[in-house]
Amino acid sequence: MILCAPSPAKAQSPLPGSGAVPDDADRAAVLALTDTALIAGAWHALFADSAGPPAGEYVALIPSAPGASDGSRPGSTVHLLRNGTELGRLDRATWDDVLLRASAGRKKWAAVLEGPEKQDVPLAWEAGKWDGPGLLEKAEWPSGFAFGMGSTFSAVRSSKPQYQREFQFAWDQKLFTHFLLGASLHRSQYGGGLTRLGQEVADTAGGKLAPLSYNPFWGDGYWWWTFSVGVPALRYTLALADQPLPRYFWMESRASNAIRTHSRGRLVSQWKGDELEPSGNFSQSVDARFGILRYGILLDFDAYRVPVQTVGCEDLPALFGTWGAGLILASDVLATRVWLDIPDAALSLDVPRDWPTRVRIAFLRLEFDYRNQKSFSLGLSVRLNIQNPIMNLPRTRS
Prior knowledge:
By secondary structure, this protein is mostly beta strands. The chain folds into two domains: 2-128, no CATH class; 136-391. 14% of the residues lie in helices and 43% in strands. The protein has seven helices and 17 strands. β15 (333-349) and β16 form a beta hairpin. α1 (36-46) packs antiparallel against α2 (92-103) and α6 (193-203) packs parallel to α7 (255-261). The two termini are 20 Å apart.
């Protein structure tokens, strides 16, 4: 956000070795800079090889052109000050470019000179860009590299808690600007709960005596993958899904009974045989997005008796990160879901200089899916996302 001061201001005593406030400050618009993206952009425009701007109070002085002492006609040079000391000067074209990148579609600095009262609450038809490029931007899928690892605790009726731990790598690449290709690799491992119950039932099936040794708490690790293709607003994903427990197993109301009797559950159908997982099973899903809105449908009739749908909102801002919420629907079964990234930190690395890398880290991601007091899932994980313009071909500068 840029705040426009009501009157010009002179700088205080400059630091040694730095330039003082320009002589034409009396004929300049004084802009106090609080937007960190704008400050970083202006800093790197002056000091390209520097790691980042130091803390301080930043001000931009935009002198008026000769003969326009009221500031109505901007001059060609913008002065950047830190703590009252001039750091350097930017030509008007460079400043416009920095401001345009930082504001991400907001009005340029010339409009800011009209006064802050016109900027605080935009009209509804001005806030939303409903032209072609604006709609396309809301429907774009992000590209980049992602890594995550975490654990999940799930509860179902008539069974001990189920534990799961997983790590994943994902790569999403843009081709022809808008066409998305994605792939991911996962390893899941299950402990206790239904997986141990399934092993115990298999060990004693057909009147066999129980083994003398106990099965380990954690079972074998399952490697699986996904492959996806997407266009703006829509994405199709194919996944290897032969695992002992499908993703939404905790929504099953009679999970333990179905595993003991090798029968179909109300939602889950894959436990009808002696083995918990259907070998060679593939699931398909279609996801849609527009702005913060999300919708998805999962089709896997080897694992579920009905399609599973999700609807909700994602990437909502919070004071300490981002969050999202929504619903999970499977036939007449309904569950709620909410997730929160604490904190959702982002930083930019000028490597390489012309194609800077953006890193986004969620040191703690909390996910909570809830059907009732005896059927829910709680997950904790760490997420890392890396974005670079080279992951969007043809390459565009960020």
